[in-house]
Amino acid sequence: MKKLAVLGYGTVGSGVVELLYRNHRKIADKAGDDIQLAYILDLRDFPDSPYADKFVKKIDAILADDEVTVVAECMGGTEPAFTFLMQCLERGKSVVTSNKELIANKGAELLAAAKAHACNCFFEASVGGAIPIIRPLHRCLAANEISAIYGILNGTTNFILNQMLAEHMSFADALALAQQLGYAERDPSADVDGHDACRKICILASLAFGKHVYPESVHTEGIRSISLEDAYAADQLDGAVKLIAFVEKLENGKILPAVMPMFVPHENMISRVDGVFNCVEVCGDAIDKAYFCGRGAGKLPTASAVMGDVIEAVKHHKTVFSQFWVDAGTQDFVAGLDALKCGIFVRFAEQYDRFLIQRSAENWLRANGETGWVVPATDNAFKIDFLSLTKAERDSLIAALEKDGLKPAVVLPVLSDPCAE
Amino acid sequence: MKKLAVLGYGTVGSGVVELLYRNHRKIADKAGDDIQLAYILDLRDFPDSPYADKFVKKIDAILADDEVTVVAECMGGTEPAFTFLMQCLERGKSVVTSNKELIANKGAELLAAAKAHACNCFFEASVGGAIPIIRPLHRCLAANEISAIYGILNGTTNFILNQMLAEHMSFADALALAQQLGYAERDPSADVDGHDACRKICILASLAFGKHVYPESVHTEGIRSISLEDAYAADQLDGAVKLIAFVEKLENGKILPAVMPMFVPHENMISRVDGVFNCVEVCGDAIDKAYFCGRGAGKLPTASAVMGDVIEAVKHHKTVFSQFWVDAGTQDFVAGLDALKCGIFVRFAEQYDRFLIQRSAENWLRANGETGWVVPATDNAFKIDFLSLTKAERDSLIAALEKDGLKPAVVLPVLSDPCAE
Predict the structure, then answer these.
(1) What is the distance, to the nearest Å, from the Cα of residue A281 to the centroid of all Cα atoms in its chain?
(2) Omega into A80 within 30° of 0, i.e. cis?
(3) Which of A101, A106, B73, B168 is the most exposed place for a label (fewest CB within 10 A)?
(4) What are φ and ψ of residue B200, in 5° steps?
(5) Per the residue annotation, which of B2, B54, B93, B200 is the catalytic one?
(6) What's the rounded Cα separation, in Å, for the pair B344 and B262?
(7) At residue B409, does pLDDT exceed 60?
(8) By the 8 A CB rule, do A161 and A223 touch?
């Protein structure tokens, strides 16, 4: 029998408890041992809970109980979660967390502490909710040099963007609906301004490339500037606007992580990921590419990922897994957005003649020796895909359009097949 | 330093050797130890190979070398692979295999031997090529009760079906092209008759439900009967014909595995998986559903999965992972195809009036108290989805159509969202 403590009895924490009791026998089978819920830490009172006797308000009882082998942290936020987990690790207790803010900011420290004390720090639930991505990336794809990771890592924004197009809603109305359905918080900025996706791509980038990438180093844009007109125009051009979090390895050895709305052509499976689903594409030198899709949030989906880690921690308590990265002491290895090469999607605020748009863009291409394919939408937008334009080239193209009297309202990078490059 | 032996220097085996040397440093980092290729077993001579000094023709040298910790089997076929791997396991050497025929037929015995000798038997490469599916299913989703697994597990047939529609080719021409491109063997029956997909669903079913499902217990159909007309009609009805391997848990506790061509509506991501890609959908009580997609075959993609297992076996040599199932002594827990409930896709050999088709099918629905939605194609096909018809009901519907003078040429089950049921 192994004792488990759960920190935080919110959506995820209560899901972990529910799942443990619901599938208790299956979980014991997989873990090779019975897992007993010993403590739930929460400042609130739950007098009517069937687990009322397990609630504690201070971490001390958990730290003092040597029989607690695994602690699952589902509180969210950096503090006091960080202090609590460091205290657990120092006592040789393995920790499992669903907390992306914590891992994105303090991952290197937690992993070093786990290693120093010969126990494990797992965080499968911190990225992609139910989707197995941390362990597959680190273990199954271990023999690959990873060249890029791209994906939809925030279900709330994906729901909003979908809803806009499917139901002809404005951003504001779609956001209000997401809040009504419980997909978005009352203060939606962590989702719609891209911070949540940024934390997740920091975790994936750190894991894939071995050095801690901090959120402050990552260019992060949200979707507040995306309008229904953009969604329409993208659809006309056989694609969709998606909030994409990505990291690419550049030829100079640096990595380029970013979060931003992009035009994703329908050839890419990611463009068709709907609703609150997440999808991650991983590019490696042996696998070419692999996709992992599923529910990126929610009570039981996230609890599934937490419990998978708890089972692993119980089963292999003293095996230290090498899921690991270090603080490199600098963020010099992180490139800025200037290094991004991509195709371009442009929507104009006014209605121009489509042949005028096409001619202007093609003139620029010809003058610059590029052989891209300008695809105009029926009205006021166009895309050029299958072409890698530098930042300077994209700026020059926009300047040329403006010189021809065409005023771009929204300019988005095109996500071609990132693995094909 | 840990010694590795590779059995078989065909496509996969030579890919494993290539990948080991190409990403040697990364692999050593991940394994926490240097992996040295000590032996390659092959009956053929490779005098010009840079690894010529490592070739052996008999297993004895490998068995006798106590420093060989991991053996990667890439020979294919049940024998002598089975005998070799049992001998390795009996000597405490962990084994890794890409051989689906072997695991589908002898998995329970190999896993029991690994457990008895406190070493590991890994087989990530046996299903889905590069796609991480065995470890995610077993570990990451360990807390879930699995209700169904559906997918495209054979890239060759998926390529053929795609090619038929995209290039207006007959089955025979598309098969010839697949052979020319090296996607299909000269004797293509393992692929086109469904045996390869059958072995893979046996492995997934055994792993998910804990009892060995043998290929002989699985209803297996291939795609030889699928014509260009079927592909067209499916496309008209907003779907695609795909060779689907699946296993479902039934209400009576039995499981229903099968391999057969199905009509997959475009709402399901699986319908859009093109070319030689594979895609597996897993349904569980906590995750709802998750998708895993990637290259299902090929030298380096398969080698990636083998090396991922080799790294794990080196890193955790004496940890016995619980990836496990038993021979239940009977296949009574496996249900036959009669238990399948599904919607239906019907294509007629002759051109009938579409309203005649629709009226005939709707009359049957009304007479049987069903409220399905009959969707006719512009010419000679229709589908009824979002409805679960039993085998008897499907037969009764077909009989009713025939009584109205409508002769079905091809009848396929509809794959609705298997997780939604």
Answers:
(1) 11
(2) yes
(3) B168
(4) -70, -40
(5) B200
(6) 9
(7) yes
(8) yes
The H or E element that residue A172 is part of is helix A171-180
Six-digit token pair at B125? 């490469």
A308/B contact by beta carbon, under 8 A:
yes
Catalytically annotated residues of A: 200
Nearest CA-CA partner of B387 in B263, B238, B259 = B263
Residues 6+ apart with CB under 8 A from A305: A98, A124, A125, A128, A129, A130, A131, A132, B140
- C-alpha B82, offset from chain centre: 21
Chain B: residue whose CA lies nearest to A17: B143
Q: Which residue has the tokens 């475009």?
A: B266
Interface test with B, best of A4, A33, A304 (most B CBs within 10 A): A304
Nearest by CB: A23 against B145, B295, B303 = B145
Reply yes or no on whether the pLDDT at B194 is more than 90.
Answer: yes
Is A308 within 8 Å of B143 when comparing Cβ atoms? yes
Per-residue pLDDT tens for A80-113?
Answer: 999 999 999 999 999 999 999 999 999 999 999 9
pLDDT for the residue A370:
84
Retrieve residue A271's tokens. Answer: 């463009």
What is the radius of gyration, based on Cα positions, of chain A? Answer: 23
Question: Per residue in B55-100, pLDDT tens?
Answer: 999 999 999 999 999 999 999 999 999 999 999 999 999 999 999 9
Q: How far apart are CA B244 and CA B151, in angstroms?
A: 5
What pLDDT, on a 0 to 100 scale, did the predictor assign at position B322? 67
Token readout for A90 is: 């120092």
> Percentage of residues in chain A with pLDDT exceeding 70?
99
Q: E strands within B66-122? A: 68-73, 94-97, 121-122
Cβ under 8 Å to B: A residues 25-44: 26-27, 29-32
Which amino acid is it at A52?
Answer: A
With CB atoms and an 8 Å threshold, state whether B288 touches A130. yes
**Which candidate, B393, B250, B260, B245, places its Cα nearest to that of B334?**
B250
Mean pLDDT of chain A: 94
Q: Is the CB of residue B267 less than 8 Å away from at least one CB of chain A?
A: no
Write out pLDDT tens, residues B367-380.
998 888 888 887 78
ipTM: 0.94
- In chain A, which residue's Cα lies nearest the Cα of B322? A30
Contact A286 B140 (CB under 8 A): no
**Residues of chain B neighbouring A30 (CB-CB closer than 8 A):** 142-143, 322
Per-residue DSSP letter, A326: B
**Distance of residue A277 Cα from the nearest chain B Cα, in angstroms:** 9
Residue-wise pLDDT for B209-264, tens only, equals: 999 999 999 999 999 999 999 999 999 999 999 999 999 999 999 999 999 999 99
